[in-house]
Amino acid sequence: MQALWMVLGAFFFATMGVGVKLASASFNTFELVFYRGLISIAFMAVVLRTGGVSLRTPVPFMHAWRSLVGGFALGAWFFAIARLPLATAMTLNYMSGIWVAAFIVGGAILYGKTERQGPLLATVLLGFAGVVLTLRPAIDQNQLFAGLIGLLSGMSAALAYLQVTALGRVGEPVARTVFYFAIGTTVAGGLGILFTGFTPWQQITWQAAVWLIPIGVLASLGQWCMTRAYAHGHTLVVASLQYSGIVFAALYSLLLFGDQIPLSGWLGIGLIVASGVAATFLRERAIPDTPAEEH
Number of structural domains, the chain? Predict the structure, then answer.
């Protein structure tokens, strides 16, 4: 039953995606990353204080690298959400599990350890076949760039995922990792704003502004639910239930935004989900007890 926290977390993340899509009508990507990080800092500070977890870390450079790649992943994901159907952007970001499998296969080949890599390689190829089916029918020609950015969001999220694993192995509490990630995203968003500037308030609609705080709160709640699920549930079951976020995003796409995804697009999403679950099962033997991803 603990694994069902992941379904609630996936719902929070998908709902956050709705907020990002609506808020992007008035705010640029860097602003959304900045506000998401700022709200998450406040939320996680309360969590850390309540749990009695110190802010002092013995591995600041590991957090810096995690924030760098994770911040890029978050910005790329928000960019894709603003310009693609929500279900498509969500699916591309959730390819992070498949990218992790690809990195494992690549590392094995690099070090000449190719035995028993066939099944994992098959899941990677299946996932990329799903990408072809998902992208070609689901986006217009003028959205190809956003599709590539969406792919990069999943790839960089995978790098961040591996770094979170490394932080967990050196004993860093998950709450502290999430807190420093929030700081990193706030800094990244702020640096971007130095170049893009803030949107003039007279150009901001209340329908967009009202989502700024919920985006940060939903992201933090989603992370809390995901962390609880991974801490107390079976890793494979939790990772599989994580893909329910794509289902929620697809429903939001259809009901709120009128996005029409053809049958081939749904087949592609199904392939990505299936390959992600299979890759999770196979890589669990290579990277056991992997902590939760952050969004």
Answer: 1
